[in-house]
Every structure is written in structure tokens, then in C-alpha cells.
Task: inverse folding
């Protein structure tokens, strides 16, 4: 079986006598027996830590769970700084969690959560910060300051927490380079290994934003909006 791995500016082809195995196992085989200089990231080997995220045939996957196919083309995540080969620097991506205040900011400690309360954002809590959605997002091609899918998903996780008293503060904070900049293409949801739909979370954040008087700036730029009969009211 042959696979190609992007190194520097070109794809290097490797051949391994293996089948029905994960990409991480193939990378380990190549590094230990063919090319000790090959660099990649890995951790738990059980799809929990997210550190082995990369792209295969232009789609984001976890190397520890993806089953290799002949002629696969492997490359690093996009929209992040490349360190070497398949290793990237995720620091900038993680900084968006800070910018978006993606934590329980003003908690009312008197309240306790019921099992039903926990289910409201149980899926969002499963995010492993692998960066797959960050890599798949087309908005970063034109706006490098976009808060991004996983950060906005984490904002919804806390906005939907009944213990959070600072909901308006969080909503105020995601209006610029945030909820309205998303194209709702759903590319992030397709590649999420946890099955999280950041698109759905962003849509819910938009609805919550409207409750606090915000609207899509692209509509607001038209001026006076539209009257009840559908005619412009400039």
C-alpha cells in the first residue's frame, strides 16, 4: 500500500506492507522503519485527546481512528501555523476561546443542575479541541480574526447553562468576528469526530443575540429595513 505525506512543499510517497490499520499505525511504521525524520503528533491513541488531527484527501480526520486506504494523501491541518511536516501550532486557535470568554463567567453557585439541564449542552461539552473544525472553516481564508466553530460552540455551552448570570456579556462579546461572520456552510459539523454541529450552535447564538437587540450587520447596512408591506422604509 502506498500513501503520500506532505513534507515542506511537496508530497513524499511511502510504501508499507500493511492493511486494515489506522493512519497513526502507518505513520509509526514509517517513522520507525523508513524515515526517522518524519514528524507528527499523537497522544491517547483512542480519539480522546485530539492531538493527531490532520487531513487525508483534503478532509480532516483523527489519525488514530482513520483506516488507511491505498493512495491516500496526508497533509497537516489548515489555517494554523505549520511547525514541521504534520505538526502544527494550535496556540492561535486556542486563543479564540479566551477572546470569546468560553467559560462559566458569572456562575450562580446556589443553582444545581438536573440531569435534564446537563443534557442541554452535553454534546458541546464533548469537544476535544482537535482543531478539525478550525481547519475546515472557509471563513478563515478571508478573516483570520473569526472566533471560529469550536469557540462559538463552547460559548453556547455556557450561554445555555442556567448557572451563567453573564449571558448578555457573552452575547455582546461575540458580535464582532463572531456569530454573523459564519457562512453556515456546515463544513465544521461534517468533520467533527464528536458529532458536534457548530453550525446549529451558531444559529442558536444568533437567535439569542436577537433577543438582546442584535441583528445581522449585512441586513442592518441596508438602512431603514422594510415595512410591513414589504416595501423599503429608508
Result:
Amino acid at each position: 500500500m502506498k500513501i503520500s505525506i506532505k513534507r515542506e512543499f511537496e508530497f513524499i510517497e511511502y510504501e508499507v506492507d500493511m492493511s486494515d490499520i489506522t493512519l497513526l499505525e502507518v505513520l509509526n511504521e514509517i517513522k520507525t522503519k523508513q524515515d526517522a525524520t518524519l514528524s507528527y503528533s499523537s497522544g491517547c491513541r483512542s480519539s480522546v485527546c485530539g492531538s493527531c488531527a490532520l487531513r487525508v484527501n483534503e478532509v480532516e480526520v483523527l489519525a488514530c481512528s482513520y483506516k488507511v486506504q491505498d493512495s491516500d494523501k496526508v497533509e497537516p491541518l489548515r489555517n494554523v501555523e505549520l511547525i514541521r511536516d504534520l505538526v502544527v501550532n494550535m496556540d492561535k486557535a486556542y486563543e479564540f476561546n479566551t477572546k470569546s470568554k468560553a467559560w462559566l463567567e458569572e456562575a450562580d453557585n446556589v443553582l444545581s443542575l438536573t440531569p435534564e439541564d446537563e443534557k442541554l449542552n452535553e454534546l458541546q461539552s464533548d469537544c476535544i479541541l482537535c482543531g478539525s473544525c478550525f481547519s475546515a472553516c472557509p471563513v478563515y481564508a478571508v478573516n483570520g480574526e473569526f472566533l471560529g466553530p469550536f469557540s462559538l460552540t463552547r460559548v453556547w455551552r455556557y450561554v445555555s447553562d442556567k448557572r451563567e448570570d453573564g449571558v448578555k456579556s457573552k452575547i455582546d462579546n461575540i458580535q464582532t468576528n463572531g456569530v454573523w461572520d459564519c457562512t453556515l456552510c456546515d463544513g465544521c459539523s461534517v468533520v467533527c469526530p464528536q458529532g458536534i454541529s457548530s453550525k446549529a450552535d451558531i444559529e442558536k447564538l444568533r437567535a439569542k443575540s436577537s433577543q438582546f437587540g442584535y441583528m445581522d450587520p449585512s441586513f442592518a447596512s441596508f438602512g431603514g429595513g422594510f415595512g410591513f408591506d414589504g416595501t423599503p422604509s429608508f
Observations:
- The longest strand covers residues 2-7.
